[in-house]
Write a structure and sequence with these properties.
The strands form two sheets. The chain has a nine-stranded mixed sheet, with helices on both faces. The protein is 32% helix and 23% strand. It is an alpha/beta fold and 276 residues long. A hairpin with a 5-residue loop joins strand 1 and strand 2. The chain has a single domain, classed as Rossmann fold (3-Layer(aba) Sandwich), CATH 3.40.50.
Length: 276
């Protein structure tokens, strides 16, 4: 990419990550990306506590997760969402994850950036983390906004594959899937890592083999691992060198044919589509 040297490009040429602010790099993709998955900061670091592995621990993750003022939050979201729109092909789609802490700001920014909002998917976790507080309901869901770039140009949607995945029934906007599991963290851990089965479903929903997928907040590159397992090309953007190194370990793991096969066997939706 002109003006930017990748932090890492895999030997197979389909996994590239950049160490930079996404707003600096996104404009250079200019109408070249089929799907964007974005997992922006949820801004949950508010000084509270939670339970992890049976112990009370702080919910604070890092400075990047501290809640800004509402106007600052909206302007932040609008900036990267506009840049993502310019990166998408005319028929491209964007998928953005969030919770009640940031999802309303994201929805407003998508509307103001002139996307067409298609669905708000509710991801219901089969194994939600325990909640420290006993004055609220257990928080077992997150949301994923599904939108397309252009209001008039239709998008790819693999209805038939999703029908098969969902036991020959039309798939709804409530997805019941586990949160990230232990086997997904064997090369390291990211505090907001998403499960491969969630990203694989998104990718299988709205892309085809050979398509280009981008993640502007790539973290540990779950999006990239899912993309490569499903024969899609990946670009990720991340500021943290620790997470970039974690991403490289994960990619190098699936460069081993046996590990590739083993991890692909855990992608349930792919196995459903391809079983004989």
């Amino acid at each position: 990419m002109v003006g930017f040297t990748p932090y890492y490009t895999s030997s197979d040429g389909i996994f590239t990550i950049f160490k930079n602010d996404c707003n600096k790099i996104l404009p250079f993709f200019n109408n070249s990306v089929d799907l964007i998955f974005a997992d922006p900061p949820y801004f949950l670091s508010n000084g509270g506590n939670t339970i992890r592995n049976g112990q009370i621990v702080s919910v604070n993750k890092a400075e990047w997760d501290e809640m800004p003022e509402y106007n600052e939050l909206y302007n932040y979201n609008l900036s990267w969402i506009k840049n993502c729109r310019n990166a998408l092909k005319p028929d491209g789609t964007i998928w953005i994850s969030g919770t009640v802490h940031n999802i309303f700001s994201i929805l407003q920014a998508l509307k103001d950036a002139e996307y067409k909002i298609l669905n708000v998917i509710t991801w219901q976790k089969t194994n939600p983390p325990p909640n420290f507080y006993k004055k609220i309901f257990l928080q077992s869901t997150e949301y994923i906004v599904f939108a397309r770039k252009d209001k008039k140009i239709t998008h790819l949607f693999n209805y038939n594959d999703l029908f098969v995945i969902n036991n020959n029934k039309r798939m709804s906007d409530v997805w019941t899937l586990p949160a990230v599991q232990r086997w997904e963290k064997r090369n390291g851990e990211h505090p907001t890592q998403k499960p491969l089965n969630l990203l694989s479903r998104i990718i299988l929903s709205a892309t085809k083999e050979g398509d280009t997928i981008l993640d502007p907040f790539s973290g540990s590159s779950t999006t990239g691992i899912a993309a490569n397992l499903l024969n899609r090309k990946y670009f990720g953007i991340e500021l943290s060198e620790d997470y970039l190194k974690y991403s490289i370990k994960r990619k190098q793991e699936i460069l081993n044919p046996e590990m590739f096969k083993e991890i692909l066997s855990r992608i349930k939706d792919y196995q459903s589509i391809n079983k004989k």
